[in-house]
Amino acid sequence: MLKALGARAVLCSNSSSSTSVVRKMSSAPASRKFVSVEGSDIHSRSKPDGFRFSLVSYNILAQVYVKSSSFPHSPSSSLKWKPRSNTILEVLKDLGADFFCLQEVDEFESFYKGNMQNLGYSSIYMKRSGQKRDGCGLFYKHDCAELLLEEKIEYNDLVKSIPDGNSSNDDDHTNIQTVHADKQKDVEPKNGSKSNTEDRGDPNDPRVRLKRDCVGIMAAFKFKDPSRHIVIVANTHLYWDPEWADVKLAQAKYLLFRLAKFKTLVSDRYECIPEVIVAGDFNSQPGDTVYQYLVSGNPSSNLMLNCLDESPPIPLCSVYASTRGEPPFTNYTPGFTGTLDYILFSPSDHIKPISFLELPDSDAADIVGGLPNFSYPSDHLPIGAEFEIIKE
């Protein structure tokens, strides 16, 4: 059963407090609310003294990709950076999450870093490799959590695992193999605003296929509550092309491989078992090979690149799928409407989602015609969840 919350408590607080401070959602540019989860099928015990925090993932749409020719359905003035940046900041202020995992962040130094700092956030940024101008940004409220460790992921590192001649190489335990596949038919968008018209080289060479300049961030945080609980947050953006689903699967496997090593490092150094949350734009729909691998470890496809083990080293489940079902879309344009963005977490007896960010219906007045527009500054929608850490 779901219950809408007209206003929500300030997070990073003890849920047993008898006096709660509420923060009303702004009506501009678009009203957003979190919906509480009751009777969820996530098996986790609940205590009244749990510690709560919120996380939002949002492909913010890099300004470098914003062209009228790519978004002819959008009001032209809504695509200009000044009004877009104002709307972006209003959206982020309105959501007020404790953690933001943003993708397609350009203008980091000139806009995001300072403005988010003024709102009480510290940040970690990873620019994409090569000549790409955007990247991933992880923003966290510095009065809520303390950064302990961080690592950055360059998926181009996968290329190092394939020497000349495509013979196998066990360096870094990546063990990427070449397997023939005639077709890759995952149904995903060919978004003209983000596709790259440059010559991508020989598509039959796995070293060429893997060099897509995609990145990610992993960071361990200690909450500034009495429990001092530690959580790992990962933010990533996988490759976009639906014809290169094997590359996305290799990236997903490498992400979890690196994440498992990072979790071991954090566990050993701080003598704990940290919770794990992975968020981002995975450019894959429910049922696609990447999604199936992440949530079940069973990619049912014979793809060209086979990276790492077949089963993920960290079990994950999707917040939305486990509470209310994946939304019908997180990307909404006339050319493509579908779900590409996810918040995943490793289930345990010590963490559970207690609410999720409500998304608009397809007939909502402020998204009819497609995104972006004056209310939604990106072609993607923000997704979010509030988690509760169960104290020992």
Q: Would you list the SSEs in sequence order as H and E?
A: EEEEEEHEHEEEEHEEHEHEEHEEEEE
Counting copies of identical and different chains, the oligomeric state is single chain
What count of structural domains? 1
CATH class: Alpha Beta
What's the overall geometry?
A: globular
The percent range for helix content is 10-25%
What structural category do the secondary elements indicate? alpha+beta
Low-confidence stretches: 1-10, 14-27, 167-193
> So, the CATH homologous superfamily?
Endonuclease/exonuclease/phosphatase
How confident overall, as mean pLDDT?
A: 84
How far do the termini sit from each other?
27 Å
Gyration radius, rounded:
20 Å
CATH architecture: 4-Layer Sandwich
Largest sheet: 9 strands, mixed
**Contiguous helical run count:** 6
Could you please say which CATH topology applies here? Deoxyribonuclease I, Chain A
Total beta-strand segments: 21
